[in-house]
Structure formats: structure tokens, C-alpha cells
Amino acid sequence: MRRSRNVKIVATLGPASETYETIRALHEAGADVFRLNMSHGSHEEIAAKHAIIRKVEADLDSSIAILADLQGPKLRVGVFANGSEELVEGASFRLDLDQAEGDVNRVCLPHPEIFEALQSGAHLLVNDGKIRLKVETCGNDFANCIVTTGGTISNRKGVNVPDVVLPLAALSEKDRGDLEFVCGLGVDWLALSFVQRAKDVYEARGLADGRAAVLSKIEKPAAVDNFDEILDASDGIMVARGDLGVELPVSAVPPIQKRLVRRCRAAAKPVIVATQMLESMIESPMPTRAEVSDVATAIYEGADAIMLSAESAAGQYPIEAVQTMDNVATEVEVDPTYVQIIAASRSAKGDTVADAIVAAAREIAEKTEIKAICCYTQSGTTALLTARERPGVPIIALTPLARTARRLALSWGCNCVVTPDQERFKGAVVGAARAARSGGFAGETDQIVVTAGVPFNVPGTTNILRVAPCDERLIYSTDPE
Fold it and tell me: Start and end of every Pyruvate kinase C-terminal domain (predicted)?
């Protein structure tokens, strides 16, 4: 399904969007990727959503990416005898391993690994940072704290520890079971929560064993500090601004977002900007002006994708939220300022033959009357390199592998077409011309750029660039075998 914009839209599925009719409507409205949140729902419910997405894909003949978002280790306080207590600024409060019900003076924090890593002066944030505690003294089973920001603390509220790298694996036992289950279903992407270092990613990659691409969520200060290593280990990145904005000053998040998006683009790896993009549309059919500006900013920065969470999963207006994102993206991408910003942020990267070919393809396309760049790709790498260039003409990614087409549905500008295996370059050019015409990207009198690798179906062999006519008679009469 051809879009009128290049940035992709990720829509989270949930109670508000679990029927065939709604999921199909979301895709038709603009959702390119569907996110399955493994924090909610049984395996049976996840499998049902997966099956519906694949049916929509087949019915509309449109490659759709499915992203399974693993929960990660959840740090929570225990329970209170009264259900909740009011903590006052300046008061003392103790966290410990005692399973007894809590009161206004203490509560259980059933995570010994936190106490092992804590030091005096560290901060603990409870309930998305609404309550802030500063550690005064601590040991292997306790932390005596001062309340620096008071409020109501209640049963099983989440805890963030921004100041230390916790000795926790990014994958809990639940995550391992979920990972195996969704890889068996055939999801395309795995989102890894609570990433702190590259070894967290390598563990997930080992378990996935090539069955799904791994996307790291950047939501911890440690992940920002170790970003280059995490990026190298990952197939993609999500700038998860929710927890990131809790654990860091909110004023630090926008510049971090900009830096991470640029580094992902330079590495030719897709990046999603996520969390609270159209938050008000959970209950309102119209977004705020500030939310629209936030969405537009991510697009101007060159993000591959923008994401809806509760807006599409549990909100009252899931389809309207997708349509709003689609409308904003379409408007931004025809703005001359957008074109200038994208061009100015383009940096030479890489010194391989493939790097040179995709850069040349973009230059040729933008300086002549070329209508599209057609990339034959086995693993998706050539299409990703082309997307990194952010060309001013459509990218058609042709691949014999449905799983490659689905993964590329997350990447900027990639219009994915599953095509038969090719053995000769002339056949590849003909196939590209047909795809360009049938998709409405070019007419018979137009020209396209075709990139491919010979021998075919060998990853990493991009070595040919051809400017070709869309008229098949001219291809057969002029192109070598």
C-alpha cells in the first residue's frame, strides 16, 4: 500500500484495536507497523492479534511489520497495610527486603539487586517520578532515604533508579518465554526493554537466532551513556521518552532525541520516536498544538518512524490518531524547509562499494527526471543504506523474502515488494520497471534507477547501478543479458 509520506507509523494494539475491522482500518489509515505489548495480554491473545494482522496483510497485499515489545524486568515496591500512604517532603522512609506490609515509615522493595548497587546520595523515583527519595545510608538489604518530593505511594508502584547501572539482565524469565513464543509466531521485530549495555542486546540476539530483528529501547541514562555500543549491537533503536523523561531531567530529553536520531541515521539503522506523541487523543478526537509540533519535530529530525502507544491501544479515537499522524507527516514532508533540513543533515558515511552506489543513486535521481530508486535486496541492507540517504524520490525495495519486506516496513521511505527470485540482471530491471508502473511510481515513458548485486541472492553484494526505462521493449532491446 503506497503512502503519501516516507516516515512510518507504528500503532500499538490493545483493547481498543483488536478486531479485524479496526486493525484493517488502522492500516488503511496509515499504520505501517503494529506493536504487540507483551506487558499486557496472554499468549493466546497475542497470537490472535498476530493472526489478524497477517490476514489484513494478505487481504490488502501489503507488507506489514509486527513489533513485539518485551516487558523487561519491572521494579516495584510491595504492598501497604492501608493500601497507600502519604509521604511528606523531608520525612524519613526506609526500603528493605522485609515482606511485611508497609506503612508511612517503610515498605518492602523485593529486589536485592537494587540494594547491591545503591550508594549514598543515589536517587529512587517511585510512580513515574512523582515521588523522589534520596538514599542516606544503605546496605545489602535496606536503604534509608529522605523524601525529597512527597506524594501518595501505593501498592506495587514502579521504581526507577537513574543514578546506577543495575546488575539486572534486560531479559527476565517472562521475557525469555515471550521471546520464544513470538519468534515462533513469526514477528519481525523484538523491542528490548531496560537495555543498559551492549551485552543485553547480544543476549537477545542469541535467543532470537535470526528469527526477528532486535530493536533496543533507550530509556535509561546508562543506555544513553553506552549508546554507540548498543547501536552497534542492535538492528534498530527506539527513543523511549517515557522512562527516559523520568530518569533524566525532562529538559535533557529533546537534545538526546536529536542526537540519537542522527546517529541511527548515520548507521543506516531505523529509529522510532515514541511515547506521548498524541497523548490527549486517548480521550479527545483532536490533538493539542504542542503534540502536533512534537510529531512534526521527530519527522523534521529524520526519524524512520513515530509511534502511538495508549492512543491506539486503549484510546477512544485510535483511527483518528493514526490519521492525524499521517496528515502531519504528509504536510511536513512537502515543506521546503524539511527538504533543506534533511539535506543539511546528510553526512557521508561508509567507504564500501554499496555505500558509493546508493549515494550515486540518490544524486542521479535528484538531479535528473528519475521517478524512483529500485533496490534489489536479500537481507535488506541495500534498502537501509538507500533510506539513509533520504532521497527525494520513492524507494522501492524488491526482495524475494517476505520477512525482509516486512522488516523494511519500519524503515523510512521503503515501499516493499515481494518479487520472484532473479537470476539475470535484465530480469531484475524488468521486474523493477513493472513494480514502479504497477505501484503508480512511474509511467511507461519514465526512467528509474535500479541497484542490485551480482550474483543475485547473496547478501552484501550490491555492485550494479543502472538507469533504466520503464518501457520493457526498450529494456529488452538495449540491456545486456
Answer: 355-467
Greatest alpha-carbon pair distance for the chain in Å reads 85
Say if residue 251's pLDDT is above 90: yes
- At 452, phi and psi to the nearest 5? -160, 175
> Which residues in the chain are classed under CATH 3.40.1380.20?
353-477
Cα-based torsion angle of the residue sequence 70, 75, 78, 80 in order, rounded to the nearest 10 degrees: -100
Give the residue-averaged pLDDT of 68-77: 94
- Domain covering 8-73+169-335 assigned CATH 3.20.20.60 in the classification: yes
Which grid coordinates are listed for 271? 529509529
Give the β-pairing of 395-399 and 65-69: unpaired
CA nearest 28: which of 55, 1, 7? 1
Q: List pLDDT tens digits, range 4-40.
A: 999 999 999 999 999 999 999 999 999 999 999 999 9
Q: What percentage of the chain exceeds 90 in pLDDT?
A: 87
User: Coil, helix or strand for 460?
Assistant: coil
- Annotated active-site positions, please? 35, 76, 217, 275
| Positive or negative: CA dihedral 413, 299, 345, 411 | negative
Q: Which triple of cell numbers denotes residue 365?
A: 535521481
Residues of the chain with CATH 2.40.33.10: 84-160
Comparing C-alpha atoms, which of 281, 285, 284, 283 is closest to residue 295?
281
* 76 neighbors 157 (Cβ within 8 angstroms): yes
Q: What is the pLDDT of residue 480?
A: 53
Residue 346's identity, in one-letter code, is: R
Per-residue pLDDT band at 478 (split at 50, 70, 90) = low
| Neighbouring residues of 223: CB distance < 8 A, sequence distance ≥ 6 | 195, 196, 197, 216, 217, 230
Where in the chain is CATH 3.20.20.60?
A: 8-73+169-335
CA 198 – CA 179 distance, rounded (Å):
18
Task: For residue range 420-437, list pLDDT tens digits in order.
Answer: 988 788 889 999 999 999
- The C-alpha cell that represents 64 in the structure block: 506489514
Q: How far apart are CA 242 and CA 251, in angstroms?
A: 13
CATH number of 84-160: 2.40.33.10
For the segment(s) 353-477, the CATH number from 3.40.50.150, 3.40.1380.20, 2.40.10.10, 3.40.190.10 is 3.40.1380.20
- 127: exposed, middle or buried (C-beta count within 10 Å: 0-12, 13-18, 19+)? middle
